[in-house]
Amino acid sequence: MKLPINQIICGDNVETLRGFPADSIDLTVTSPPYDNLRTYDGHSWDFEGVAQQLWRVTKPGGVVVWVVADATINCSETGTSFRQALRFMEIGFRLHDTMIYEKVNTGGARGSNAAYWQAFEFMFVFTSGAPKTTNLIEDRQNAKGKKVYTGGGGRNADGTITATARIASAEYVAEQMSGGFLRRILVDYTLLHFQKNCPATTS
Questions:
Q1: Which of 92, 186, 194, 200 is deepest in the core (most CB within 10 A)?
Q2: pLDDT digits 0-9 by tens, 161-201
Q3: In what helix (H) or strand (E) does residue 3 lie, and over which residues does it extend?
């Protein structure tokens, strides 16, 4: 089957994917059903079949973004999302990144009065090998800054921190001082680690 372009295809997801050529898809973004939270008019889906076919059709360097959450049953989250992530890795995918999608204008699910609202979903970013292309959408304003910020860094095996220095804008420095530094440090360390160990073409 020739890969369809600019078409909406209605059909069984596994059967449709089986018709696609191997190593033909650059990016898949999908949000499958979560446990049994919805009936979908009686339709069911085959997780294992979908995962296997995604591995087959994803190009080397391609990406699958898997957006999922868990039901809460008997005051316990099912953990299905994590089992799915581990299964993707067993099949051959790399777990390149785990992101948190914050739901806006919604209270989220509440499985127990003793737990916080589940106002988020997981976004597991799987890759077939090292990602071929990376376009990070990060709002650091440091390209034309006047100051040097050295507050972030990576923690070493012995517990010490190796600081990193970079030019930063006044707005960026102000954010660090106002308490928004934790996310920045985590992002900085992740990017440094990724660039060192998983170089990729940036366009």
A1: 194
A2: 676 555 444 555 555 555 444 444 444 444 444 444 454 44
A3: none
DSSP state of 41: G
Look up tokens 């390209």; give the residue.
Answer: 143
Torsion of CA 129, 135, 139, 144, to 10 degrees: 120
In this structure, the strands spanning 76-77 and 94-102 are unpaired
Task: Kindly write down the DSSP assignment for every residue of 126-143, as one continuous string.
Answer: EESSS-SB---------T
* Helices then strands, each counted (H, E), the chain: 5, 10
Q: Say if residue 29's pLDDT is above 90.
A: yes
Residue 203 lies in a domain: no
Give the domain extent around 109: 13-127
Q: 79-118: per-residue pLDDT in tens?
A: 999 999 999 999 999 999 999 888 776 656 666 677 777 7
Question: What is the pTM assigned to this prediction?
Answer: 0.69
**CATH number of the domain residue 120 falls in:** 3.40.50.150
Are residues 37 and 102 located together in one domain of the fold?
A: yes
DSSP string, 86-130: HHHHHHT-EEEEEEEEE-SS---B-S-TTS--B-EEEEEEEESSS
